[in-house]
Amino acid sequence: MLQLSIIGFLSVFLFYLRGAQANPIILAPPTQQAFLVLTSFFAVFYGVAGLLVTLFNLPIADVYEQRRAEILSLQQLSQIIQRGQTAPEIYQALFTSAVQTIRADAGFLDAQLQPTEHVSPLPAPLLHELTPTDRATMKTQLVTLLAENQTELIDNDLVRSQRLTGLSQPYGSMAMLPLRSLTHDYGVLVLLKKEQAGFDPEDLSILHTFTTQTVLSLENLQLAQEARISQSAQDELRIAALVQERLIPKSLPTDNWFEIATYAQAAKEVGGDFYDFLHLPGQQLAVLIGDVSGKGVTAAFHTAQMKGIFHALMQPNPLAKKDRDRYPDPHRFMVLANEALTHCLERSSFITASFYLIDYEAGGFSFARAG
Question: What are phi and psi of 86, to 5 degrees?
Answer without folding.
Answer: -85, 170
